[in-house]
Design brief:
Pfam families: ABC2_membrane_4. Keywords: Membrane, Transmembrane, Transmembrane helix. This protein is mainly alpha-helical and about 240 residues long. Helices cover about 75% and strands about 0% of the residues. Helix 1 crosses helix 5 and helix 5 packs antiparallel against helix 6. The chain starts with a helix and ends with a helix.
Length: about 240
């Protein structure tokens, strides 16, 4: 199984789609500029407010779109280039191939979000800031680990769309539409039932305008969309010609 995962990671590193992850650093850069040069905020950087803005921006728009595009590419590109048709003529375990691609996506999400987090901390130290205690750092790092899981669970339905359509574009259109719909829904009571609102609602976001925090329903919606995406992916991958 590990050789399949390593092969997928190697293919990803060779693909230009990897440059898409640069967009994930935009919330950090914007927050750094705001806290560094805006007179309203630059008197003293408060870590909670600073990190909450970055996490909210990531969870609201940036991360779902970036990881959705990457997932759609990883699954859809091989259909478009007919590589998958050739691969399926060999005695390859399709389930191992499917889960190796999912593991690759999880690896990408984990590495990039951790890099964004530590980049945010480093840039914060360059500004006039309050002291950062270990408890606060651990709290936000644990929140980050949860974010990794949330975005992986969300991305599975995009994988299913790419597998079902055998194309990159439908998956990209799907995830962009779902993410922008979240901008409208996230501040309403419907957010409890909308999976793309879950990463925002289940992560630290105090002081950035979120009103409804239905933790249980958000978790359930996220689990349901993950299971649906995974089930469709397994079914289509197992029997696709």
């Amino acid at each position: 199984m590990m050789k399949y995962v390593l092969a997928e990671i190697f293919k990803y590193r060779k693909a230009k789609i990897k440059f898409c992850t640069i967009v994930l650093f935009i919330p950090t850069v914007i927050s750094f500029i705001i806290y560094g040069f805006n007179k309203k905020y630059n008197s003293l950087l408060l870590w909670e407010g600073y990190l909450n803005v970055i996490f909210s921006f990531l969870n609201d728009i940036v991360a779902p779109i970036v990881y959705g595009i990457i997932a759609a590419y990883i699954f859809g590109h091989e259909y478009e280039t007919k590589t998958m048709n050739v691969m399926f003529t060999y005695p390859i375990n399709r389930m191992k191939l499917l889960f190796s691609k999912l593991a690759c996506i999880l690896y990408i999400i984990a590495i990039t979000l951790i890099l964004v987090f530590f980049t945010s901390i480093i840039l914060g130290f360059l500004l006039k800031h309050e002291s950062l205690n270990m408890d606060l750092l651990i709290y936000y790092f644990i929140a980050l680990l949860k974010m990794i899981l949330y975005h992986f669970m969300l991305v599975c339905i995009t994988c299913a769309v790419a597998i079902y359509s055998k194309n990159v574009l439908p998956g990209i259109i799907f995830v962009i539409s779902a993410t922008f719909a979240n901008i409208v829904i996230v501040n309403t009571q419907l957010s409890a039932f909308y999976p793309w609102s879950a990463p925002v609602l289940l992560s630290p976001h105090e002081g950035v305008g979120r009103i409804f925090i239905p933790y249980t329903l958000s978790t359930i919606s996220l689990v349901v969309i993950f299971l649906i995406g995974l089930a469709i992916s397994i079914k289509k991958y197992r029997y696709v010609e």
